């Protein structure tokens, strides 16, 4: 593993730069922080950036070895031979004079790493240098160490600044992981490693070493994923042992109890350990004590302390501590809802779990928190302990969402004869239906569940089955029947809350694809308002909620809504609990939003992350690959787009046929990226016809706009009218803009009308409208089309339009779409070289000398460039080049 790239710390580097220039009126700066937080690397990066012609830099690396030797810290700086007979003060003055002579008029910078380990004479010299003219000192200090008085006086006297180096924030931790691993990192893996390292780069490095060397990591679609299992390497253990070793038995007991029980109530901890030992552990920075609602909770000061303590604790002691914690919490009354889950885990781990009902309830709680691995453990333990049908039903459900449908089917079939009443039978039918339809893609499941559900006499039981049948029929594109069944469930007073809200999700999803976006939003809000009532019974209903809501947000172009959705509690729980269907679908939405913003790199990363997470799924895997194809096509990567589309076709499940519009749009984008624009347009026209038949007006607006982006605004679409004519794409969009809810459809229609009428002014207006919604990609495409028209007409408005286009392209990164390519001129490589130099202000003679051309040849090139760009001279050339996608940076550097 190579040396880690330096990431972040911009504010600290700026402060160091200001300190050595005297901009803050100080003579330097010292950075303090915990071990491994990155102080030394920060100091090195900041000092290495100083120009050697202006600064004479000397490094002082203090250590425990040099601490016992006078001037030991400055052995690399001062001459070996020191004058004899000088007093201590004379030696210090001599040393300062030596440094000034060696600096030869440059500014002196003493960089002192681990200044707390300086010997007294060296510390005194550093202080004296800081008081000298034209000299500065910068350094690092470790928290909790004794600081030599001359060093401490530097900031207490206001001579230098003192700053604390804080842990890396999550975004910079994730970036550091990407840099060192050289690839994208799975979002959940990044979150776990960031939490375990607490933003400490050294700990993060050791964690990554441990994960890679132990075989607990893998790459799928170029995305690095960590299993979450940690084999602590010796280096990592030694780093932590420094803090937690040499504890008294009482303090170690406190640390062990918190390691197995955190967050642990302070009052509960006082019952299990001596109060004095708890206070000692807190004073030593091993635990933290903080209020939590009406409790005061105790946690370990660092997550890795728990990993080491739990591994070092003998098995017998571990089981005794966990059983003791369970007894204490049971004795206290399990006042909080999550107390049941904690007691169940302690009982399970200590081998004292004997109540299957408690284990079933705890597994349900874990599943309601989307902690799939924990829920699986508890449900299996409940079944093994004699939990019967309830345990089997729950375990099978969890296994379904853990991508283990065959195993789930076996669990269900084992209790098939234990379905005595209709309520229990309805539960068995629905879980088995889920597993066979979505897990195993058995298409006949819908008819089977419909037949058996129709035989039920109990209205509540029948409503539960009908709600599932409604969702299944919607997913296989039997929309009329799905709607009828869902409405039937809502009309049944006996239906459970979970069944009613599942049916409402089916309606909300159908309303979204039909363009009834306001009604869809209202339906989703009603479902969410009752989440506390259905989550315990049917936690996976949240997936139906997110699919309905995500579809509406995507069709309406509501990027802020998507941002809120992927940042809410469900996203955090899904990532933390390995609920892959949830986290995978949210990653698809992240990719979609990034694509509309023109951020192709972020779009591709999110799409690849979704592909990796959903690699074993049969539900959203095809959709993830389709979004990957879209992102690759946006970047102009036709090969990867084609690969992703082929993979989407291979793995897309027929049970999710309702997703076909997204896949077929991706297929068109893939064709266009490969140069077959005519084939892409033909495919989209066919898709429009299919969507019209299905009544998916919400999707139809987006597909028609894709045709506008391919230059098809005036192309005929739809059935032939009575007079033999057909509406154009622009006319159909105008019609749909009055039927489909939201701000986006009228804007799409405006763009189409402007394109049909070849109106640069209206195209620019549409571009501004897109940009107001954050849709930088369609904004840039509309503006590029306007610039193209103005260039053809040699309009004086070209320069200002080019500037507006440049602003919109500045919101994007690498974007290559047919609309952008068609609206921009083509210059040869030699013409680009000439144009770039001319835009930089070079004369024709200078350009000729640099490119080994004659001056006349350069002038001929310039005339051809002016003609192609529609400009009259170099004054307009710079703006024209900035308006061409992919060349704004190189052209105007």
Automatic annotation (TrEMBL):
Any one Gene Ontology molecular-function term assigned to this protein's record = adenylate cyclase activity
Q: State the superkingdom.
A: Bacteria
- The name this protein carries in UniProt is LuxR family transcriptional regulator
Q: Which GO terms describe its biological process?
A: regulation of DNA-templated transcription
Q: Which UniProt keywords apply?
A: ATP-binding, Nucleotide-binding
**Listed InterPro entries:** AAA_16 (IPR041664), P-loop_NTPase (IPR027417), Sig_transdc_resp-reg_C-effctor (IPR016032), Tscrpt_reg_LuxR_C (IPR000792), WH-like_DNA-bd_sf (IPR036388)
The record's annotation in SMART domains points to: HTH_LUXR (SM00421)
Query: What GO CC terms are in its UniProt record?
Result: cytoplasm
Give start and end of each HTH luxR-type domain.
820-885
């Amino acid at each position: 593993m190579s040396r880690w790239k330096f990431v972040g710390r911009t504010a600290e580097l700026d402060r160091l730069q200001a300190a050595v220039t005297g901009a803050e009126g100080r003579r330097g700066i010292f950075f303090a922080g915990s071990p491994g937080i990155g102080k030394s690397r920060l100091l090195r990066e900041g000092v290495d950036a100083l120009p050697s012609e202006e600064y004479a830099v000397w490094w002082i690396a203090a250590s425990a070895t040099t601490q016992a030797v006078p001037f030991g810290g400055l052995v690399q700086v001062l001459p070996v031979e020191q004058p004899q007979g000088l007093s201590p003060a004379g030696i210090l003055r001599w040393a300062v004079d030596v440094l000034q002579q060696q600096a030869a008029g440059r500014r002196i910078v003493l960089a002192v790493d681990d200044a707390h380990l300086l010997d007294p004479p060296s510390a005194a010299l550093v202080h004296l240098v800081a008081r000298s003219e034209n000299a500065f000192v910068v350094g690092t200090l470790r928290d909790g160490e004794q600081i030599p008085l001359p060093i401490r006086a530097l900031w207490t006297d206001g001579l230098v600044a003192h700053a604390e180096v804080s842990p890396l924030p999550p975004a910079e931790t994730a970036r550091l992981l990407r840099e060192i691993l050289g690839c994208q990192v799975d979002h959940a893996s990044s979150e776990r490693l960031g939490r375990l390292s607490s933003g400490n780069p050294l700990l993060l490095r050791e964690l990554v070493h441990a994960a890679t060397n132990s075989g607990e990591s893998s790459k799928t679609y170029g995305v690095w994923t960590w299993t979450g299992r940690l084999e602590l390497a010796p280096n990592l253990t030694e780093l932590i042992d420094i803090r937690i070793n040499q504890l008294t038995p009482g303090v170690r007991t406190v640390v062990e109890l918190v390691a197995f029980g955190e967050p642990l109530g302070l009052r509960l901890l006082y019952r299990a350990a001596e109060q004095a030992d708890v206070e000692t552990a807190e004073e030593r920075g091993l635990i933290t004590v903080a209020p939590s609602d009406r409790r005061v909770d105790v946690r370990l000061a660092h997550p890795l302390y728990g990993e080491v303590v739990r591994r070092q604790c003998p098995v017998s002691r571990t089981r005794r501590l966990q059983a003791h914690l369970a007894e204490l919490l049971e004795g206290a009354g399990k006042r909080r809802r999550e107390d049941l889950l904690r007691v169940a885990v302690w009982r399970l781990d200590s081998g004292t779990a004997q109540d299957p009902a408690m284990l079933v309830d705890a597994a349900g709680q874990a599943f309601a928190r989307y902690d799939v691995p924990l829920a699986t453990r508890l449900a299996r333990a409940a079944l093994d302990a004699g939990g019967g049908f309830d345990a089997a039903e729950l375990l099978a459900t969890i296994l379904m969402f853990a991508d283990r449908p065959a195993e789930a089917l076996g669990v269900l079939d084992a209790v098939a004869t234990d379905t005595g009443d209709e309520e229990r039978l309805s539960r068995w039918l629905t879980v088995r239906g889920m597993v066979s339809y979505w897990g195993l893609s058995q298409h006949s499941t819908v008819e089977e569940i419909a037949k058996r559900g129709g035989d039920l006499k109990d209205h509540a039981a029948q409503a539960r089955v009908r709600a599932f049948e409604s969702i299944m029929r919607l997913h296989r594109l039997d929309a009329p029947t799905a709607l009828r069944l869902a409405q039937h469930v809502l009309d049944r007073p006996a239906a459970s809350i979970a069944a009613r809200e599942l049916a409402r999700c089916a309606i909300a999803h159908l309303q979204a694809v039909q363009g009834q976006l306001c009604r869809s939003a209202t339906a989703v809000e009603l479902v969410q308002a009752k989440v506390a009532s259905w989550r315990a019974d049917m936690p996976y209903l949240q997936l139906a909620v997110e699919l309905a809501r995500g579809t509406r947000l995507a069709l309406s172009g509501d990027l802020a809504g998507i941002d809120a959705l992927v940042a809410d509690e469900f996203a955090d729980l899904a990532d933390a609990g390995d609920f892959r269907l949830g986290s995978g679908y949210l990653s698809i939405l992240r990719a979609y939003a990034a694509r509309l913003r023109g951020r192709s790199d972020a779009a591709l990363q999110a799409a690849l992350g979704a592909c990796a997470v959903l690699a074993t799924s049969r539900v959203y895997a095809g959709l993830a690959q389709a979004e990957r194809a879209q992102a690759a096509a946006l970047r102009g990567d036709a090969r990867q787009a084609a690969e992703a589309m082929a993979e989407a076709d291979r793995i897309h499940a027929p049970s999710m046929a309702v997703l076909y519009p997204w896949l077929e749009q991706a297929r068109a984008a893939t064709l266009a990226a490969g140069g077959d624009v005519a084939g892409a347009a033909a495919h989209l026209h066919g898709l429009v016809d299919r969507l019209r038949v299905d009544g998916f007006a919400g999707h139809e607006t987006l597909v028609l706009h894709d045709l506008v982006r391919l230059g098809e605004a005036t192309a005929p679409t739809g059935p032939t009218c009575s007079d033999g004519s057909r509406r154009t794409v622009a006319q159909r969009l105008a019609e749909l803009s009055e039927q489909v809810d939201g701000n986006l459809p009228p804007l799409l229609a405006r763009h189409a009308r402007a394109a049909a009428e070849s109106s640069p002014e209206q195209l620019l207006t549409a571009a501004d409208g897109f940009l107001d919604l954050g849709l930088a990609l369609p904004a840039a495409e509309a503006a590029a089309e306007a610039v193209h028209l103005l260039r053809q007409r040699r309009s004086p408005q070209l320069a200002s339009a080019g500037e507006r286009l440049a602003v919109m392209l500045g919101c994007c990164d690498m974007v290559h779409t047919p609309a952008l390519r068609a609206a921009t001129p083509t210059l040869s490589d030699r013409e680009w070289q000439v144009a770039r130099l001319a835009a930089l202000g070079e004369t024709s003679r200078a350009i000729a000398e640099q490119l080994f051309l004659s001056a006349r040849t350069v002038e001929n090139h310039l005339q051809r460039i002016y003609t192609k760009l529609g400009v009259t001279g170099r004054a307009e050339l710079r703006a024209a080049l900035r308006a061409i996608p992919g060349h704004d940076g190189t052209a105007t550097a």
